[in-house]
């Protein structure tokens, strides 16, 4: 059992349960206050993935990974490790013209069952003066990393299908069960290519490792490429549509702003597979979060008399973030790649606006980290579902 705090009627109550929740005063959705979690917070180093596999580069913008594999033959983990060690020692700089093709020696091939991928243009012009496209593939732990440049004349589902197949053959891993992608504009091409390979394409912004890796590649690769175009805006920007009404099956009975110590959040994430049938965590070590164990992480708890069915429906949405629209006194839930729901509302007043702003400030102080919990009762000790969420800026490409 862990201890957190909830704010009720302006008084701090120390309650002893796994998730400490304030009990709303009525059966409809109603907000409760939460103070800023400013104390004990430190800067979150979440801009760049802190764990990377030892990679070997594959050169040229026109060749495919399959061609390279045929010419060189697969390299052993020891060979890749040695080459990676040379790069880490600084003896070899990143070649902006080269691709990446690597798998961490300690990563079991059969254990990498989900990929994250992006297939989009880059702020780079080729010899014809046309934008270069790139395929970037990784897994959630960055144990698998693959990149390949393509001319804009070969952008179709067949090219992508063959390239994804070459990732598996080049790195000696099976095709994944699922492949997440975050650009809605590429859904048709990606879905078609994945379907032909027997891979489920999942539109989702929970591609956290991929998004952070793209940010890193912008600084270390794209901006150093001889064809880089300064100030070029992304061709396919992320959608941010106006939020729509929440489907009836996703409504809960009550909700409350809550908070949980960072140490308890870690425990909840680590116990997801043991305790809950529904939910999703994040690799906090990979993301580089450096928070005091007592730092309070803000969240939203939802009570429902049909908590298990509600959690099951929520589990299929690829939840990514929750935010407060103080102007309209609403909670906005983002899911998938382009879905936004008005999740709940509260009666607007100076007090509730201040409370909502404090919740957003607490989230910002924690580097955008927050959570959603679903319970059978707000006073119960456990959760039926727990999702760790993270605010991330759109990638620079």
UniProtKB/TrEMBL annotation:
Region: Disordered; residue ranges are 64-95
Domain RNA-binding protein Tab2-like N-terminal, by residue range, is 115-217
Boundaries of each RNA-binding protein Tab2/Atab2 C-terminal domain copy? 234-389
Task: Tell me the first and last residues of the signal peptide.
Answer: none
State the superkingdom.
Eukaryota
The record's section on Pfam families has: Tab2-like_C, Tab2-like_N
- Spans of biased composition, class Acidic residues? 79-95
Query: Which InterPro entries would you find in this protein's record?
Result: Tab2-like (IPR009472), Tab2-like_C (IPR046761), Tab2-like_N (IPR046760)
PANTHER family in the cross-refs: PROTEIN TAB2 HOMOLOG, CHLOROPLASTIC (PTHR34556:SF2), PTHR34556
Q: Can you name one GO molecular function term for this protein?
A: RNA binding
Name the record gives this protein: PI-PLC Y-box domain-containing protein
């Amino acid at each position: 059992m862990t201890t957190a705090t909830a704010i009720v009627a302006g008084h701090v109550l120390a309650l002893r349960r796994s998730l400490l929740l304030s009990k709303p005063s009525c059966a409809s959705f109603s907000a409760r206050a939460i103070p800023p979690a400013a104390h004990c917070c430190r800067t979150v180093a979440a801009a760049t993935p802190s764990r990377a596999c030892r990679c070997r580069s594959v050169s040229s913008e026109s060749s495919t990974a399959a061609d390279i594999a045929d010419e060189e033959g697969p390299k052993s983990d020891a060979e890749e490790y040695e080459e990676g060690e040379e790069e880490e020692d600084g003896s070899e700089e990143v070649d902006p013209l080269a691709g990446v093709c690597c798998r961490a020696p300690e990563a079991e091939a059969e254990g990498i069952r989900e990929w994250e991928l992006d297939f989009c243009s880059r702020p780079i012009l080729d010899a014809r003066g046309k934008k270069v496209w790139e395929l970037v593939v990784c897994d959630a732990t960055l144990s698998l990393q693959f990149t390949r440049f393509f001319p804009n004349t070969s952008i179709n589902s067949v090219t992508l299908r063959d390239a994804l197949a070459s990732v598996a053959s080049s790195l000696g891993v099976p095709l994944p069960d699922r492949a997440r992608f975050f650009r809605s504009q590429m859904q048709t091409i990606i879905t078609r290519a994945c379907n032909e390979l027997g891979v489920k394409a999942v539109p989702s912004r929970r591609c956290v490792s991929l998004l952070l890796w793209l940010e890193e590649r912008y600084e270390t690769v794209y901006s150093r490429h001889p064809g880089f175009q300064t100030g070029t805006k992304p061709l396919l920007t992320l959608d941010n549509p106006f939020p729509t009404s929440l489907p009836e099956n996703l409504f809960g009975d009550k909700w409350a702003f809550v908070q949980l110590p960072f140490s308890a959040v870690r425990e909840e994430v680590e116990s997801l597979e043991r305790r809950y049938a529904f939910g999703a965590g994040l690799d906090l070590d990979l993301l580089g979060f450096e928070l005091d164990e007592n730092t309070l992480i803000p969240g939203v708890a939802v009570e429902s008399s049909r908590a298990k069915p509600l959690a099951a429906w929520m589990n299929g949405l690829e939840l990514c973030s929750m935010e407060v629209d103080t102007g309209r006194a609403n909670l906005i839930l983002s899911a998938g790649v382009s879905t936004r729901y008005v999740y709940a509302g509260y009666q607007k007043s100076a007090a509730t606006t201040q409370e909502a702003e404090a919740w957003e400030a607490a989230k910002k102080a924690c580097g955008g980290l927050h959570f959603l919990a679903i319970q059978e009762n707000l006073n119960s000790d456990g959760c039926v579902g727990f999702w760790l969420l993270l605010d991330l800026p759109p990638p620079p490409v």
